[in-house]
Amino acid sequence: MSGKLSSDLREWTDTLLRLKRAPSQLAIFFHLLRTGRAMSVKEISEEIALSQKATERAMARLIQKGLIQRTPFRDGAYICDSRQVLLGLLQLTVDLHERLTKGS
């Protein structure tokens, strides 16, 4: 894996791990990931029982962090790229394996 890609994945994964401090963002992120579909702010706020304003603020932060994206095919809808999540988890696994084998 190239150094730049590996670095980007580590940064993305670190951002994801820090979501524990932002419960609304974490709930939205996992809801989009779990459903696997493009959803509007209204749909998300109704499905996770969060006010529309709180949902809008949390989603704006998730977009800034690069954890969710606006969909090009449906105006006003957002999605979470499960491939990026998988790559991040694989990078974490590789990093953990390297740390464990260096300690042996």
Please give a structural write-up.
- Helix 1 (3-17) crosses helix 5 (82-103), helix 2 (23-35) crosses helix 4 (52-64) and helix 3 (41-48) packs across helix 4.
- A hairpin with a 6-residue loop joins strand 2 and strand 3 (77-79).
- The chain has helices at 3-17, 23-35, 41-48, 52-64, 82-103; strands at 39-40, 69-70, 77-79.
- It has a single domain (3-103), classed as Arc Repressor Mutant, subunit A, CATH 1.10.10.10.
- The protein is built from five helices and three strands.
- The longest helix is centred in the last third of the chain and has 22 residues, at 82-103.
- Strands 1-3-2 form a three-stranded antiparallel beta sheet.
- It is elongated.
- The two termini are 24 Å apart.
- It has 104 residues and is mainly alpha-helical.
Provide the CATH architecture: Orthogonal Bundle
In order across it, which strands form the biggest sheet? 1-3-2
Overall spatial form:
elongated
Number of strands: 3
Distance between the termini: 24 Å
Low-confidence region ranges: none
CATH topology assignment: Arc Repressor Mutant, subunit A
Major sheet size, sense and barrel closure: 3 strands, antiparallel
CATH superfamily, by name, is Winged helix-like DNA-binding domain superfamily/Winged helix DNA-binding domain
Number of helices, where a helix is a run of at least 4 consecutive DSSP H or I residues? 5
How many distinct domains?
1
CATH class: Mainly Alpha
Rg, alpha carbons: 15 Å
Please indicate the percent range of residues in DSSP E strands (runs of 2 or more). 5-15%
Overall SS class? mainly alpha
Instruction: Bin the helical content.
Output: 55-70%
Give me the strand/helix succession.
HHEHHEEH
Mean pLDDT: 86
